[in-house]
Amino acid sequence: MKRVLVTGCGGFIGSRVCHQLIDDHSVDVVGVDNMNDYYDISLKFHRLDQLRRRSQFHFHAVDISDRITLADVFQNYQFDAVLNLAARAGVRYSMENPYVYMQTNALGNLNLLEEMRMHGIRKYVLASTSSLYAGQDMPFVESLSVNTPISPYAATKKAAEAMAYSYNYLYDIDTTVVRYFTVYGPAGRPDMSYFRFVYLIDQGQPITVYGDGEQSRDFTFVDDIARGTILATKPLGYEIINLGGGNQPHSINKVIGIIEDLLGKKAVVDRKPAHVADMESTWANIEKADRLLGWKPEISLEEGLRRCVAWYQDNREWLVKLPGICETA
Ligand SMILES: Cc1cn([C@H]2C[C@H](O)[C@@H](COP(=O)(O)OP(=O)(O)O[C@H]3O[C@H](CO)[C@@H](O)[C@H](O)[C@H]3O)O2)c(=O)[nH]c1=O
What we know:
Layout: E1 3-7, H1 12-25, E2 28-33, H2 41-52, E3 57-61, H3 67-76, E4 81-84, H4 98-119, E5 123-129, H5 152-171, E6 174-180, E7 183-184, H6 193-202, E8 207-210, E9 216-217, E10 220-221, H7 222-231, E11 238-243, E12 250-251, H8 252-263, E13 269-272, H9 287-293, H10 301-319
Parallel strand pairs: 1-2, 1-4, 2-3, 4-5, 5-6, 6-11, 7-10, 8-13
Antiparallel strand pairs: 9-12
Helix pairs in contact: 1-2, 1-7, 3-4, 4-5, 6-8, 6-10, 8-10
The structure holds 2'deoxy-thymidine-5'-diphospho-alpha-D-glucose.
Domain NAD-dependent epimerase/dehydratase: 4-244
Protein name: dTDP-glucose 4,6-dehydratase
EC number: 4.2.1.46
């Protein structure tokens, strides 16, 4: 590959994918992002500023749901692959504003596929989610049917997967869907549990725990996810591949305990009822990722959280000045 398009390049996972493409694969990266304000935009600029120092990175402020400006990008460049990391990704917020999820996750996905069809671009990688496995037996394997999404977010990702299947069938666009399992890491998303726990425990503010905290997630470190996403650019036809920890999932209470130890501070816990749009547990079967991509995660939860806390401590000075970055959930 010589040049790829990465959507959502200012995002948590998208920015890591861009860095790895440049560092490990010497690929020219065109990145687009609408820089929306779902969470404090300073974090997106923090990630984008680091990318803009790279001569192989080219940024365009483009919303994938806007066909006109997206078309310009495809007019100006020829791509070997499109990696769609642009998404509305918060599970619980999708009940408050489902329309933006439909717009970015479903319509934006269609716009990309249409541009790819018109310009003869043959490889598509779509970031999807373990949230689709709601109601299924664990560990989740890709062959399970995923017809019972319990959040608008999951429903829009299902829509995106289905549309990508159609475009593979009709127009032979080679597509790999990567289903991520609760991705965490430095410079992450402040709407997610681990980011809020690090920030709020350090600041001596209460954390919110939904339910009894024994719900669990197959947490996966962002560098492992970026590596798997890039491996997924190989030609495969149409495949869905889990990228997850693959071991026993970790409870939220365990994550809080590790963060308390790393910070040397105790959490003040404010309990709320379990959230209706949340799954109880997630756990990936990752045999297919190993077989098709030669991928396995490398970073343990303890090491990954250590890196999250280290990043937070290195950046605390400006983070604490961002108003409401982790205001009570
Ligand atoms: C933010 C927050 C969350 N929680 C609970 C809710 C969930 O049961 C659990 C994990 O929440 P989160 O860390 O936000 O992650 P989760 O809801 O699993 O969703 C993540 O993982 C999904 C699956 O990969 C992704 O598709 C989503 O984009 C990503 O946000 O922790 C709390 O108890 N307190 C909190 O403050």
